[in-house]
Write a structure and sequence with these properties.
Strand content: 15-25%
Helix content: 40-55%
Largest sheet: 15 strands, mixed
Distance between the termini: 85 Å
Bound molecules: zinc ion
Structural class: alpha+beta
Number of helices: 21
Length: 791
Amino acid sequence: MGAPSTRAADRALARPRRRAVAAAAALVALVAVGAGALLDLRTPAPRAADAPAGEFSAARAYGHVEVVAARTHVAGSPANDQVRAHVEGTLRGLGLETEVQDTVAPEAGQLSGAAGGATLARVRNVVARLPGTDPTGRVFLVAHYDSVQSGPGGNDDAAGTSAILEVARALTAGPRPRNDIVFVLTDAEEACLCGAAAFASSHPLAADGGVVLNLEARGSTGPVIMFETSRNNAALVDVFGRAAPHPVGTSFAVEIYRALPNDTDFTAFLDADFVGLNSAYIDGGAIYHTPLDTAAALDRASLQHHGDNALGLAREFGRVDLTALDSGHDATYFPVPGGLVRYPGWLILPLALLALAAVVALGWLARRRGRATGGGLAAGFGLALLPIVVAPLAAQLLWAAITALRPGYAELLDPYRPTWYRLAVLALAAAVLFAWYALTRRRVGPAALAIGGLGWLAVLGVLLAVLVPGGAYLVTLPALAGALAGLAALSTRIDGPWPVVATTLSAAVAVLILLPTVVLLFPALGMAMGGVAALVAVLLGLAALPVLDLLHPRAGGQRGLVALRARRLGALPAVATTLAAVVLAGVGLAVDRFDAAHPAPTHLMYALDAGTGQARWLSHEEDPQPWTDGYVDGVTEVTDFPGLGDAELRAGPAQAADLPAPKVQVVADTTAGGERTLRLWLVPQRPVRLATLHVDAATATVLRAEVAGRPVPVEAREGRWGFGVVFHAPPSAGVELTLTVAPKAERVALRAMDASDGLDGLPGFRPRPPGVGVVGSHSSEMLAVARTYPL
Ligand SMILES: [Zn+2]
């Protein structure tokens, strides 16, 4: 576009050889920066068992992992008692004041959140204290020692539990810290975060709040990411940046996590006004909550990363004045090689506006210099939206196609070997960008398109600054760098190779910020949301457009055959990346097949009505695997098992097992002033993970309710079972409930249900063949028995 320039730089790049050299040099520089950024995300080498006493050793911590994750140990189970005994014994053995908090607690947050009704659990937290020399407050190291019902939790959260035991050992081996350090190994996190809620709301050591460091795992490998903070995190993040040996964390992750439905124990602490940091490793998500989450599946380098950071942070938070941690604002932060960049939240909007102003100034200067027309700039801005929209869509379509070919992926957080698919998405994003560029470059011109791309980055930066402030840096800083480089390149003062140097530097800023984001987004969101990574990849491409332009023949000036050849060459990157996307997706399908070590996940439950003798197989699978198809047919709404929630399930007939429903024993039954008060015991007749009780809304309205002596909210839910209680890890003696109701019928109908785990031994159940696995979910392999009691 525009008049052919006579400037030296243009003349230099007009020669294909010089242009190729410039392109190669710029790309080598960017690849080096990208490699540096990715190496910075690497996990540290695991330290051996004979590492110095003051250091964290993954080998020593792994010894605990093997004990904690020896078996599945769901809250309330005898296996969990053994894990608790090991944790308690280890902490006591270090000379720490250690106790078990044994209580009944509601779930974190509001009581009525769960599908089945008000949720509580009997919990037993292990709490140990290392008293400080001159405390300004308390530091809490938190992980949950229980596992899900469907696997031994080798990572989730034997990793966190074992890391804390090893950190406790390292801390007690050194001089005592100034502040109290409290080790809290919680129970029933998987059920309802009830252990953490019990500690945060009612333990004496929690009365004054403090700093919580929560350690989690949602996968089996990868760097430990500090992904969640309390509000006003600037001072906390500052400690994280200087005291964690390998600080990987971004203010963007915090924003993403706040938007996701996930919860950890950390939520319970935030509800109780603690401050703190939440960290987890999240790659290798295929095994999350499955029987494959074993001790052997744990990556010791991730464990070392967890421990190094936890120990560094415990020492620093143990040293600083904890009364000065509320900074009044959130910080923006992200990792770069050698540390954590951070700046205060009040800078976010001014920076975003500055970036926008710089891009506008660049457009103005490009017009003045004859590099673009007003119309060209408008076209460039409009057209730059295309790849931003198309690349994520294409990535989502690609994954939809792959999932259609391999339906088992729908039930996995991520494939077992996702790398090929991730590369396919990146190649696809690149293909969209290159194709778009090849089609628009000649007509609109490189300058207008580059400025248009920066324009979108800057506009998104302002939008994010207002809506998602912690994420604004992702686009604001590359836009600002790109605009400044463009202004420099167009200024008459710099010449020769310097414009290429300037644009390469600004592209390096984009690579430094956006490449780690792309790489971390894949495991964070899973392939099913690969479009988000594709979007960020395209933004990176737009920020680096002037460098990518060097891969194309010089714009303008060619005629006839030369122009034709140039156009063909211009299509080359698009063709190559499209081909790469197809090949990579194909390799992914060939490499990541389901087999005995990487089984196709299936979901099955069994529900028996002990009153009617009717039994059913139930599954959450939307598109059932062949194995599941042997049990279930059509979709049904399951209404007579309110403890399973209100979900639509696939169901099929099953033989009735000889299993007892929980008993409802009436201790007292009094009526006064139109209100009937029932004092009941709900008593499971077999070892179970949870028990539920629901009241038929057609027979009574519940006015007040107490569970184990604690009032619970009674607001009625939609449907037949208006009021309900879910009690996890019920004692074998049962759970005491007091219901005060306004009767609507002569008899009040109560539905009692309990659930254990494991389908082996049920009539008609055929164990899974090799290659068929279990979906990682809180209802996998659940065996529910229910009965209606008219009282
Ligand atoms: Zn979990």
